[in-house]
């Protein structure tokens, strides 16, 4: 009887596959290929369509073409006025001649000798009557080998590192993968029921693996890729769904939500809550009033009023006799929260304490004692809140702000402290972000959380006029700043560095503070703020700026979040091309917070500014390696929209999911094939099928193949996914 097995059950070391052996297995291991399973999931990075080989005389200038020819000679030269050695490898196919261009690679003459037959895919360039090929992939053809795998078909090109052994090339990887497919794919078990495959028009697993590596057509390739991506997304959503169910099964706190203190607090506010804030508070109170622990993500654009929403939740916890912990990623943001929440809640008799790593030891000991005995009702701090020695008396609510900046482990530690304080009872968790998260990322990273969105700004928020300018415009900009200050306004000037760097030709805040004070703004009051300044000095600078004792605050990005000075009307960012979109959006959010017309001025190189201001479409995909195009796209987006979600979507497309949240947050997103930006259409169907399956069969008893595959994929990650 033929043995059937799941993909993850093919744990045989790759060295036992015919033609591999010990030495090649060691080299394959450097590519992450240790077992047959790894080999089958070592997906091609691109494909070459070798079914349609072009003759040299038919090649089209500027197009990416595939051709075949024999090396007939070499030509070496040195480019004038540059230290670049050019090697041309000249090939012919009987219809013409073409040159492969190698820059500063003299050894290639030794490898690519006369008489070798090559197949090449690359960009064609006509230059002074010569046909040149740049940006190419090539492969040596061998008559004695079975060319059917490498020729006259859609051929896979696998990712190989530059330092890989010459004995491991595309041909060997291809041959090895094909042997593994022929040996093992016929016995692979399909984990999905037929109704799911047919509903979404997906092929089975055997077809998928064979056609992701060796497509019989482009249609077959797309179908195979869709099937494998669907499985990756499905398993991820299954993890989020199981986690959500696990949290819902935990014993939580059933808060009373009809006390009068919250009502009087809301009525005492010097402003009226927006309808969006009221809706979100209602959702949070409904969670807190349930025995199921709250696990909610609160989206709110810059200035949308998330702090007062968190304060309402904290008041509810206080009325029920529980403490609240609010964790922020930076000291400045923690300090700002402490000031704001103390101002809002101290009239109610609620004691707020700030705990950061820079607080003096004697003061820290006193705060720790007060937190432990319950005198402190709301503890606000950085990661110092989760350090050893911090004990709560009765912690019932954890609020984590700008939560994507924390590692998953840090959030888990705060939750565990709450469980310790409440004898195993799970706290309510509210995570907040002012970085709008595109729906695809929210479903992928935070699909286990309930989501609330404050999609309305307070009526007093001004739309910030955003312009992109070059350095030559600085004299005019400085004159405009002086006029604004004379009219009573204040200004932020932001620089990318604290101190000057030998490696980077960028302006630094410390030097510019002195230079601006002396030359550009004599007679005006300037302040300096950056991350290396001591905590008490930072607090004093911010206090002076808030009290209008400073006209111009020269700063790094430490003011990116948590700073609220309604009188500030100009945000000038120099070297704006060096900043990410999320940073730029956050920085812009520091102005327009009062009744005054406000401006964000992005200063950059002239080439970038001209592109942004040309009004022409900017498409970085035309040249993915162009830093100028990417920078121009970021700055143009800032000038065109103030919608945080639109900005986040562009940011995601430019940077990808990994960089969007950073490696700490990206740990559960190690998808081998799927891309949550470009394959987003499969995300919701996969989520729907995963959640439907869990609703009908929470223990997955009827789906043993899915259960085993899931367990293998996520057994080490579920504890972290749970934290959200």
CATH superfamily (homologous) name of one domain: P-loop containing nucleotide triphosphate hydrolases
Provide the helix percentage: 25-40%
Shape: globular
Distance between the termini: 45 Å
State the assembly state of the protein chains. Answer: single chain
Structural class: alpha/beta
Number of helices: 24
Major pleated sheet: 7 strands, parallel
Determine Rg (CA atoms, Å). Answer: 30 Å
Mean pLDDT: 85
CATH architecture of one domain: 3-Layer(aba) Sandwich
pLDDT < 50 stretches: 660-668, 720-724
Strand content: 15-25%
* DSSP, total strands: 20
What is the third-level CATH name, the topology of one domain?
Answer: Rossmann fold
- Briefly, what CATH class of one domain? Alpha Beta
Strand order of the largest sheet: 10-11-9-12-13-8-14
Q: What do these coordinates show?
A:
By secondary structure, the protein is of the alpha/beta class. Among the domains are: 52-152, Nucleic acid-binding proteins (OB fold (Dihydrolipoamide Acetyltransferase, E2P)); 260-290 and 305-433, Rossmann fold (3-Layer(aba) Sandwich); 464-641, P-loop containing nucleotide triphosphate hydrolases (Rossmann fold). The chain has a 7-stranded parallel sheet, sandwiched between helices. Strands 15-20-19-16-18-17 form a 6-stranded parallel sheet, with helices on both faces. Helix 20 packs antiparallel against helix 21. The longest helix is centred in the N-terminal third of the chain and has 32 residues, at 218-249. The chain is globular. The two termini are 45 Å apart.
